[in-house]
Specification:
Low-confidence stretches of chain B: none
Number of domains of chain A: 1
Order of helices and strands of chain A: HHHH
Oligomer: heterodimer
Number of strands of chain A: 0
Helix content of chain B: over 70%
Strand content of chain A: under 5%
Order of helices and strands of chain B: HHH
Largest sheet of chain A: none
Structural class of chain A: mainly alpha
Mean pLDDT of chain B: 89
Number of helices of chain A: 4
Largest sheet of chain B: none
Distance between the termini of chain A: 72 Å
Radius of gyration of chain B: 17 Å
Number of domains of chain B: 1
Low-confidence stretches of chain A: none
Number of helices of chain B: 3
Strand content of chain B: under 5%
Largest interface: A-B, 60 and 53 residues
Chain lengths: 133, 95
């Protein structure tokens, strides 16, 4: 399949811009992961790192590899694999973070602070009281 | 066509040190992390970025052999998340 020159140039440019934005937000997420005070605040940085730092560059690679003719016909395999990885990360990243946050809260492995009001704690305590009664 | 090849190779070469910087920061948090969820969260975010890094690396090397590795890595780190949260919540791995 022969692509017009301007189209492959455009897809390479779009892919490079997406990879660049992804890498920059990756560094921002890493700095946040290092500087934030506790686990539940660090979850915000982890979200930036998975969606903006991994999903976006993978879609960018998929778009870039379509336009990069010098890769040969294997570029379709590369683009498809990158797209599949991107969709997997889009689904699995938030699911894993939520499971980890729930487990860390319920097992009291990480402290919730600073906090003003915690309705979930009251709810769990009420459940336990009902079970014991 | 040679112009595109040169441009993409230079671009990926510029991206590598920035990725390595981010990985270093994640590893510092993973080693320091005061609690288990902190360590697991840092490794989680780092491995998703490592999958993206491997795909960019395969563009740089012009070889498709690193692509299946990225897919397996993304699935593996989700399994890590689920196992650790299961262990934290009920103190057993579950058969």
């Amino acid at each position: 399949m022969v692509m017009p020159d301007w189209l492959s140039n455009l897809s390479v440019w779009v892919g490079e811009i997406m990879i660049g934005v992804g890498v920059v937000s990756d560094v921002i997420a890493a700095i946040g992961m290092l500087r934030f005070p506790n686990f539940f605040v660090r979850l915000h940085a982890a979200t930036i790192g998975t969606i903006w730092g991994a999903f976006l560059p993978l879609v960018g690679v998929a778009i870039l590899s379509v336009g990069a003719d010098y890769l040969g016909s294997y570029r379709w395999f590369m683009g498809g694999g990158a797209l599949i990885t991107a969709v997997l990360i889009l689904i699995l990243g938030p699911a894993g973070s939520h499971a980890l946050a729930r487990a860390a809260y319920r097992s009291k492995a990480a402290k919730v602070e600073p906090k003003c009001v915690d309705h979930l704690e009251e709810h769990i305590r009420g459940e336990e009281r009902d079970r014991n009664a | 066509m040679a112009g595109i090849e040169q441009q993409v190779t230079t671009f990926t070469l510029i991206m590598f040190p920035i990725y390595i910087l981010a990985f270093t920061l994640y590893i510092i948090r993973a080693v320091k992390g005061p609690t288990i969820p902190d360590t697991v969260l840092a490794i989680d975010a780092m491995t998703y970025d490592l999958a993206a890094f491997l795909v960019i690396l395969s563009i740089f090397f012009r070889s498709p052999i690193l692509i299946p590795t990225a897919i397996v890595l993304a699935l593996w780190v989700y399994a890590l998340d689920v196992y650790v949260s299961k262990y934290l919540e009920s103190k057993e791995m579950g058969g």
